[in-house]
Amino acid sequence: xxxxxxxxxxxxxxxxxxxxxxxxxxxxxxxxxxxxxxxxxxxxxxxxxxxxxxxxxxxxxxxxxxxxxxxxxxxxxxxxxxxxxxxxxxxxxxxxxxxxxxxxxxxxxxxxxxxxxxxxxxxxxxxxxxxxxxxxx
Length: 137
What we know:
By secondary structure, the chain is an alpha+beta fold. 21% of the residues lie in helices and 36% in strands.
């Protein structure tokens, strides 16, 4: 199994700022959409986390804006799982879907947290490990 997922997004009017380009905060929304698709592809999504009594809040995020995106632009967002222990690391690339030009890149670090105690857990849930047993991270 390849540990990445592609998501296609068409830039909407409501995503633009007064300069007529995508407002910087909306890129995070695009990453979240890609992250959800990646987790679904792995077979361990937010519902599975909740059933296991954990969550994975974002602890840090690095972003690099390469080129602004504009209204109606078609984007291809690639999310790749890099690590699951001691934290989840996901790398992202956003490309213009028509030209293939890279417009944005990012990396998120997410810590597994026990939903009841709110304490950090530095090992992945067993169900997630089972889903990734076929892969080397």
